[in-house]
Structure formats: structure tokens, C-alpha cells
Specification:
Blueprint lengths: L1 H17 L2 H21 L17 H9 L2 H12 L2 E5 L2 E4 L2 H8 L26 H11 L5 H29 L8 H18 L12 H18 L18 H19 L10 H7 L11 H32 L1 H14 L9 H7 L1 H14 L5 E5 L5 E3 L2 E3 L4 E5 H4 L3 H4 L12 H8 L17
Parallel strand pairs: 2-6
Antiparallel strand pairs: 1-2, 3-6, 4-5
């Protein structure tokens, strides 16, 4: 009885104090003071340079993430503070290539929980934080990204997509009496959308002919919301309440389901060529390790959407910057033209991927340099530091820290690239150039490298 009475007295005492606004205010103030003192003098990251406010709040980096200013913000911090910068209470940004490779070499550094915002209707090859799931998806999709797989669709991509772009531009020039003015990013975006349509959806989007396709808008809207969910995870629970805040646009989901049905019908009728190895077919014939069952519709949709997300804008942005640098550096452009014409004098010959790698070293070097200076991945790849911690550029990073491996910063690492920040494709020529190609991190590196790197 005395124990029960003691509990009741304690409960009453606690509730009385909780109903006292001064008590609650005092508790909050005490907690705030504790956090300030801890982060200022006792936490494991206190020796890492960075803005003073970053010791106590994520607001500056979250604001940069949501507003699309991550690259500019982090570049300014690294320029001021060095290769390792504190950007939040337990967040660190790292722009050193050697550190990047150290972290990315093992699955021990899991993707951070921020990637959950990109899961869509199901975890996918990009968003998953599970090592076995990622290995499984890579095995399932591997044949589509092998040399055999790429060779099986190259002629389709060339004839249906690239030739269509050439014809479209030629028609515009003819109609313009020898010249034409156009937004080449838009045309490249539509062309890459058609390519991804062939590979991931099994059919062309006809974006080039129709000046775009709704699928790119649906995916970009989903991407925007993914960044919001990544920065503010609690909003995922309100997506059916807040207008426009959905993980997958309803139209995009139905578009994917229709494409899946058409491919299954094509296979069932015997009209699908087994010589074609594309992404959609690899996933349709795949079996999950956990239940030995084929991928569900939600799993298929998640992978199809991430392929559009990963392939359309990244490729078109990179090509846009490449053409821009050709215009800014006319001597570089002239050398590329001479290299192509001297090795392939027959204008009717369609240059294959293999031929360009073997016979156009300078052109390939310009692509690598464009990836270095203006890679389409403009943010940072976040990883969680495991129990044993890690040393990065002389700083000891404790367990539980999120390390953001900053790609644009790594592509300006003076230990690798020197102080030359200009567009200089020559750096990628010769034996030293072949070695430098391995330092390009536009597709990440290590165990979670982009499977589409080839």
C-alpha cells in the first residue's frame, strides 16, 4: 500500500509541476543550455572547423538543400575552412578525394536516413540503406549494364533517338536557310528521355517529336517532394492531406503500370525479342531473394522511376555543359571536330560507343573534363560513420556522424587536380590521364557506385 501511495504522490507532484508554465519553461531552458554547452565544449566534432552556428543547428544546410543551393553553399564553406567542414551538430562535409574513396569502399558506411525520402512507393536501388537489398538489385539489373546488354540496345538508341535528334536539327537548319536558334538543353533532355524510355519502360516516349513528355514533369515533381521528405521526414505522413505533396504522382504510377502490362503482353504473345537486354526486362524476370517471388508492381514502379530520375537530367545537363564549353573554348571544339573527321571520314558511318572509346581519346577527355567541372550530381552523398569511427584528413570522426562526401568539392581537390580550375581536357590524355580518370567521382565510387557508369 505504501508503494502505491508513493507512486500516486509522485504522480500528483509531477503533474502539478508539468501544469506549471514556469516549470516547463525552466526545463526547456535547462535542456537548451545543456545542448549549447555540450556542442560547444564536449562533443566529438568540436575540433572540426566550420560556421559557429553549425554546432547547434542544421538550419543553414537544410535551407541550402531545399532551395537547391547546396553546391554553392558547400563550395564557399570548403574554400574558407578547408577539406573537412562541420555543417551541423552531427554533420560533416568532406571534399577530399582520398577520404571519399575510403568511405565509399565499404558497406560499413551506410547511406544516411535522408535517403529514405527517395524511397517512393518502395525502397529502390538508389534509396535503400540495406546492403543485401542493394546487392540483390545490382545482380538483377547487371546484365542490362554489361557490354553485351549495352550492345543489344545501342542500335535501337542510335536509330530511334540519336538519329531523330540529328534529323530534327537538320530540318530546323534547312527551314532557317542554313542556321537555326534553339534551346539545346531542351532537345538533349528530350532525347535522353526517349533513350531512358526505351531502356526502362520498353518504349519510346516521343519526347523529341512532341517537344517533351509529361513523364519528365511527373518525375521532377516527385524528385522535388523527395528532397522535401528527405529534409523534413515527418511530412511523409501528411502527403495525402497537403495538395501536391506526393511521393509518386498518380499519373506517373499509372503510366508505369501501363508500360509493365504492355511488356508482359508482348512477352506472352511471343513478340518480344530475347536478344534485347533492357532494364525493364531484367526486373520483370528477376526474383527477390527474400520470398523467391517476382518483383511486385510497386517494386517495379520504384525502379522505373529512379531510372528516369537518374538518367534523364543527369545526362542532358552533362551534355549541355559539354557543348557550352566547346563554344567557350573554340580551339578545343576544333580539335574534337578534326579528331572525329580524321578517324571517321565517312559521314554516313554511325560511330559506336566502343569505337569512340578506342579512336577518339581527345573527345573522351573533353567528356571527363565536363564531368569534373560541371558534373550533374551537384550535392553530397551522405554516409553514417560506424561504431569504430574514422579518421578523415587528420580529423577523428566519431560514431553516428553523418559524413557528406561532396562531389563538386572533390573535383576541385588541389591534391589531385592542382590549382588549375580551367577547362583542360589534356589532363586526361596519356598514362597520367588514364590514372586521373579514376579520380572522377560523378558516378560515385566503391560499393554503391552508379550501375549506369558504363
Amino acid at each position: 500500500m505504501k508503494i502505491v501511495e508513493l507512486v500516486e504522490i509522485t504522480k500528483s507532484y509531477f503533474l502539478n509541476y508539468c501544469n506549471n508554465s514556469k516549470f516547463l519553461y525552466s526545463v526547456l531552458c535547462a535542456f537548451g543550455v545543456y545542448k549549447i554547452v555540450y556542442y560547444a565544449f564536449f562533443d566529438g566534432l568540436r575540433g572540426i572547423p566550420g560556421p559557429w552556428a553549425s554546432r547547434f543547428t542544421f538550419y543553414p544546410i537544410r535551407k541550402a538543400l531545399v532551395s537547391g543551393e547546396t553546391t554553392r553553399y558547400l563550395l564557399s564553406l570548403h574554400k574558407k575552412y578547408g577539406p573537412v567542414v562541420r555543417i551541423g551538430p552531427n554533420w560533416v562535409s568532406d571534399s577530399r578525394v582520398s577520404d571519399f574513396k575510403k568511405v565509399m569502399a565499404t558497406h560499413r558506411f551506410r547511406k544516411s536516413s535522408d535517403y529514405d525520402g527517395f524511397a517512393g512507393v518502395h525502397q529502390n536501388i538508389f534509396s535503400t540503406r540495406d546492403e543485401e537489398f542493394n546487392r540483390m538489385r545490382r545482380r538483377q539489373i547487371g546484365p542490362a549494364f554489361s557490354h553485351t546488354g549495352l550492345d543489344s540496345v545501342e542500335s535501337i538508341v542510335q536509330s530511334i533517338c540519336v538519329d531523330s535528334l540529328i534529323d530534327k536539327l537538320g530540318e530546323m537548319v534547312d527551314n532557317g536557310a542554313g542556321s537555326a536558334q534553339f534551346n539545346y538543353f531542351k532537345y538533349l533532355q528530350n532525347t535522353t528521355a526517349d533513350v531512358i524510355g526505351e531502356l526502362a519502360f520498353g518504349e519510346r516516349f516521343y519526347a523529341l517529336e512532341n517537344d517533351g513528355h509529361p513523364v519528365t514533369g511527373w518525375v521532377n515533381e516527385s524528385l522535388k517532394n523527395s528532397f522535401i521528405f528527405s529534409s523534413f521526414p515527418i511530412l511523409r505522413y501528411f502527403q495525402n492531406i497537403i495538395p501536391g505533396l506526393t511521393i509518386i504522382e498518380p499519373e506517373l504510377r499509372q503510366f508505369c503500370l501501363d508500360a509493365i502490362k504492355r511488356r508482359k503482353d508482348l512477352v506472352k504473345s511471343g513478340k518480344f525479342s530475347n536478344d534485347r537486354i533492357d532494364i525493364l526486362q531484367m526486373y520483370l524476370v528477376a526474383v527477390n531473394n527474400s520470398d523467391k517471388k517476382p518483383l511486385s508492381n510497386n517494386e517495379l514502379i520504384a525502379e522505373m522511376v529512379i531510372m528516369v530520375l537518374a538518367g534523364v537530367d543527369t545526362t542532358s545537363i552533362t551534355l549541355t555543359w559539354l557543348i557550352t564549353y566547346y563554344m567557350l573554348y573554340p580551339k578545343v571544339y576544333q580539335r574534337v571536330v578534326e579528331e572525329v573527321r580524321s578517324n571517321f571520314p565517312n559521314k554516313e558511318h554511325k560511330i559506336t560507343h566502343k569505337e569512340s572509346r578506342e579512336k577518339l581519346p581527345y573527345f573522351v577527355a573533353t567528356v571527363y573534363e565536363a564531368l569534373r567541372i560541371r558534373g550533374a550530381v551537384g550535392g553530397a552523398l551522405a554516409r553514417e560513420v560506424p561504431m569504430e569511427g574514422i579518421e578523415l584528413s587528420g580529423y577523428q570522426i566519431p560514431q553516428g556522424t553523418n559524413v557528406f562526401m561532396f562531389v563538386p568539392g572533390a573535383h576541385q581537390d588541389t591534391q589531385v587536380w592542382g590549382n588549375d580550375v580551367s577547362f583542360n581536357p589534356e589532363r586526361f590524355l596519356g598514362p597520367q590521364g588514364e590514372s586521373l580518370k579514376k579520380e572522377i567521382l560523378a558516378f560515385s565510387t566503391g560499393v554503391r557506385m552508379c550501375p549506369g557508369r558504363k
